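User: quick one, fold this
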Amino acid sequence: MRIFDSKPDIAKMLANGDVENLARTIENGGPYFDHDENTRMEAVDALGSLADQRAIDPLIGALHDEDERVRLSAVAALKKHQAFYPLVNALHVRDNGVSRAAAEALGELGNPLAVLPLTKVLDDEDARVRTASVEALVKLGESSTDSLINTLRVTNNKARRAAAEALGQLGNPRAVLPLIAALKDQDWRVSFAAACALKQFNDPRSLEPFIGALGDGETDVRRVAAQALGQLGNPRAVEPLIRALYAENSDVRRVAAEALGQLGDARAVLPLVEVLSDKFKNVREIAAWALGQLGNPQAVQPLIKCLEDPYDDVREAAAWALGHLGDLRAWNPLTEALKDDSPRVEKAAVQALNTLASKSSRDKHAITIA
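Assistant:
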């Protein structure tokens, strides 16, 4: 005989602290199991709200409920009970949603004992589970560092990649040398993750490794290496980045141009002028911006020519760069650019002309005073 004559009164059970009947409601296969998933979810939520350890076992059972919402509610309820070990076990159930939710819950509980079990699921086939584990390990902070460094040396490439991502987010300087070693990982995805992580440290020890990766690495790794070298600001990177302007991949050329603009070294002027003729518009655009940053008058005439580029992105960058250079030879070409069909190019030309006018006024004032 069913214990409930009608829909179970979950609110009343909760008010009475009736763990036993709430548990019966969600006991799959039991005589009082309620086939309405909404009712079961309410019962699970109620068990999560009760400060009664007897609620934990039925909640563990609910992790295997036929309805996904009930299963996820069970994870949330176990988190309310701070049921550490049941949540650790939930990492390994045959349900990616539950595993992911369990990882998130463990990260929020903040127990450093979760580091090892979370690290062990960094090789999960489901990318969302790996991501949740990475985020949880980052929340656990310093206690995760050693385990993640060790994971960089395991055989599973998914785990190595996830460990590199987590170490980048943690930001512990002890991870720099292990990540440098991971730049040469046999799996390019791991190398890429290591490069992205290492870039976040902006550590001088990564200068030579990034120079090496720029010249001998997979395309995505080379791109990140170029970005990192721009950030590091060391003139030692100028010549390698100039060589990268001639890379086969346009993304590598584009990022190398951007990095050279950041470094501000005059050695890059003529190579960047050559890049203004690159067949890809995004490379030409960034080369123009970079030349504006370098501030060298040798770039004025080539940039004036770029005001006639077929793509408005390039023309806009050229106008901005000419304003930044402040050379009055650009006055007439920029005046012509006021007629450009692109409002963005017209706006850049106006700003550049205002800059030139201001500079001219200052120069005349200086001459008068002298």
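User: anything notable?
Assistant: Residues 20 and 54 are 8 Å apart (CA to CA).
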